[in-house]
Amino acid sequence: MTEADFAFLRLLLQQRSGLSLSVDKRYLAESRLSILCRRRGIVDIASLVDQLRYGRDRSLESAVVDAMTTNETLFFRDKIPFDQFRDVILPERIAANAGSRTLRIWCAAVSSGQEAYSLAMLIDEAADRLAGWKIDIVGTDISAEVLDKARAGVYSQFEVQRGLPIQMLLKHFQQRGDTWQVSERLRAMVDFRQHNLLEPNDHFGRFDIIFCRNVLIYFDVPTKMKVLDLLTPRLLSDGAFVLGTPETVLGLTTKFAIDPDHRGIHRLTRSFPAGTNRLAAVGGRRR
């Protein structure tokens, strides 16, 4: 791959998906796009880039984004955010929404669905407290291919062994030969939709809880700031916002801040009551 072709691909990925591909990742692009070329019957990467430059084929652009997007995920990934969802966030939303009896959750960059189904399983555990409630779990991703897998809810033995407790596997999955499928009841709880986090999202309405985990790490700083600005209006004023373990809002926005009582949970800064140590909440230090 020539430097010019790689530069073109880097710009395309940045503009279409926000993915910031560093200059030392040319080998990764060559490896993944060579596979795409074989699947599409394209002679080589140079020909692929020519088609992207002059063909204006949106489906090919989407295929390139899919090929270059990292879709690593697993059930109950990192564990602590799910413990906090079960023990902190869900009880507070049950109390706050007792009148409306509704609960809306957005799993952004949901990949092949494990995060959304993990939350659905925890909600099922609280079924006695949520009887008669309207539960909406929306899972979005830029990749149509991984969303098809998420909707099908079919996972290999290796995938279900990664983070999924055996009792939940037996309760919520049916074995289909060498694979396991999420129960129809659980699949009905999640609405998977294709969405680019860089695009407007007003039509989604507002959510009690937004999970946006392990995606900001692939963006440059301006793109991270844009995504956070787009997500802010989608969260209810007293809602909860959850990032991935290596991610932070510090230096990116003043609209979100870390909950001083629950590290890992973020809130809209205007939701903190008067008298809260805002410097502590945003992770700053007194001088």
How is this structure best described in words?
The chain has 287 residues and is of the alpha/beta class. The protein folds into two domains: 66 residues, Orthogonal Bundle (Chemotaxis Receptor Methyltransferase Cher, domain 1); 202 residues, Vaccinia Virus protein VP39 (Rossmann fold), CATH 3.40.50.150. Helices cover 42% and strands 18% of the residues. The protein is built from twelve helices and ten strands. The strands form two sheets. A seven-stranded mixed β-sheet has the order 6-2-1-7-8-10-9. The protein has a three-stranded antiparallel β-sheet with strand order 3-5-4. A hairpin with a 6-residue loop joins strand 9 and strand 10. Helix 2 packs across helix 4. It starts with a helix and ends in a 6-residue tail after the last helix.
State the CATH superfamily name of the largest domain. Answer: Vaccinia Virus protein VP39
Helix content: 40-55%
Distance between the termini: 51 Å
Main sheet characteristics: 7 strands, mixed
Could you give the order of strands across the largest sheet?
6-2-1-7-8-10-9
Low-confidence stretches: 277-287
The multimeric state of the shown protein is single chain
CATH architectural grouping of the largest domain: 3-Layer(aba) Sandwich
Number of helices in the DSSP assignment:
12
Please tell me what the overall shape is.
globular
